[in-house]
Amino acid sequence: MSMNVACSQPGCANPVIGQCMGYGGNCGRFYCAIHSVHGLCPDCAKRKLEDEIREDYLQTSQQIPKGVALSGPAVTAGLVVFICALAAVTIWAIGAGTLWVWILCALAWVAYTVLMAWLGASQKKREKALVAEIDRAKPGFSQFYVAWKKKRNKEATAVALGIAAAAVVGAVAAAVGSSQEDDIRRIREKVDRL
After folding, report:
1. Within 13 A of 175's CA, how many CA atoms are on the CB side?
2. CB–CB of 173/89 below 8 Å?
3. Which site in 2, 16, 89, 111 is 20 to 30 Å from 36, CA atoms measured?
């Protein structure tokens, strides 16, 4: 009894030249010279290529700048905020009037809020342009980047919430501990008076 071995690609009648070693596990499919990619069958070769593309996209995503770039207008706006805050502190220190301190503090806060909003918007604009430019060279990158960034932001939010929860628990525990100590101290004082 002879065994007939054929290429695993449907409808292929070419002679078999090897058996797939598998990618990410054992495969065992046979392949011909046309349907072989570096010792892999077409299915394993496709999975390997998808993993390589995913890894390349991940590395590219991690290289996109995350911070706010400082430019001339950003530095100027930052200096205006700093000068307003410094003037408010100076006026308060010399006792010239609390109304002016509050006005300058409000101006500094408004300037700071506008500055942060402007920097955030310009950073998003630069990021969007960079992602679009990369997408032209690497099709599908923008969809990958949006999903990756969403996942990264979700993880960062979870970490921040965990830290905040730990801080709240610590503060509550400290408050409970100090109130218990205060109760014990008050009881001892009452006992000492008797």
Report:
1. 6
2. no
3. 2
- Whole-number Å distance between alpha carbons of 127 and 129: 5
Residue 186 lies in a domain: yes
| Residue 129 sits in the same domain as residue 150 | no
Number of domains in the chain: 3
Residues 24, 84, single domain; the answer is no
pTM: predicted TM-score of the whole model, two decimal places: 0.57
Joined tokens for residue 98: 């609390």
Whether residue 69 is predicted with pLDDT greater than 60 in this model: the reply is: no
Terminal CA-CA length for the chain:
108
From 78, 58, 156, 62, select the one nearest 119 (Cα to Cα): 78
Distance of alpha carbon 194 from alpha carbon 178, whole angstroms = 25
Q: With respect to residue 126, please indicate whether it lies within any of the assigned structural domains.
A: yes
